[in-house]
Amino acid sequence: MLKAGFREKCEGIHIRIGLLFSRFGIAPNTWTVLSLIPAALGFVFLYYKMLFGGLVLFVISGFIDIVDGNVARVTKSVSNRGAFLDGIVDRYVEFALYLGLWFYIEPLPQVLISNSLWILLLLFGALMPSFITAYADHKNVIQDPERLKNLGGFLERFERLSLLYLGMLLGLINPVWLVYVVILTVFFAHLTAVGRIYAVVRASKAF
After folding, report:
1. Cβ atoms of residues 122 and 100 within 8 Å
2. Under a CB-based contact definition with an 8 Å cutoff, are residues 164 and 118 in contact?
3. Cα–Cα distance between 30 and 62 in angstroms, integer?
């Protein structure tokens, strides 16, 4: 998981971010909800074919998502409720991005199949890893919380969004390149889901 390694290398930066933004006196959960605002605006920008503005707004939303966790750590206010809210808001932000990309790439030249279908496949592939983990927990296939937490995968949310933001950047040069990156993300998202299914079955020793 790239996110875990990235966080370890940048721990000092994360602490500084937490200390800086904790001075505003805004609760971590409030920061979490605030990340919805630039995401909603980013969707509007993509809907009206303003790719650069949409990219900037979604990056801002992602930065605020980093802020909430860092503020929670430095203020010692980390909680299960906060983690739950963060995960829910993350899904809304991600859906806003996919919906915006849907409107943006739908009229572009199709690559193999409908561009809209690529977005649907991306959405499904993005949802599956989290669902697999939650369902494995719900059905008690894996009862060890640490195993559930470390199922991993090649392309989790951090990597998936980073790849799409790179595609949006490339799309400023040639919009079709964004479609190619979406297709690449679809492939790795579903590969991650299959890998996580295998990890659950192997960890549970079901077969």
Report:
1. no
2. no
3. 14
Question: Domain 1-105 class?
Answer: mainly alpha
Total residue count of the chain as it appears in this document: 207
Please enumerate, as own/partner, the contacts of 14-20 that have beta carbons within 8 Å and a separation of 24 or more.
14/66, 14/70, 14/73, 15/70, 15/73, 15/74, 17/66, 17/67, 17/70, 18/67, 18/70, 18/71, 18/72, 18/73, 18/74, 18/75, 19/74
Quick one: pLDDT at residue 146? 63
The pLDDT assigned to 145 comes to 62
Torsional sign, CA 110, 39, 82, 76 = positive
Instruction: Report pLDDT for 57.
Output: 95
Domain extent listing, the chain: 1-105, 107-207
pLDDT tens profile 193-207? 887 887 777 766 644
113 has which bridge partners?
111
Q: What is the pLDDT of residue 2?
A: 47
Question: What does the CA dihedral 46, 49, 55, 56 come to, rounded to 10 degrees?
Answer: -100
Query: What value does the mean pLDDT of the chain take?
Result: 80
Mean per-residue pLDDT, 33-62: 92
* Predicted pLDDT of residue 26: 75
Measured between alpha carbons, how far is 128 from 125 in angstroms, rounded to an integer?
A: 5
Please classify residue 167 by burial: count the beta carbons closer than 10 Å to its beta carbon, then call 0-12 exposed, 13-18 middle and 19+ buried: buried
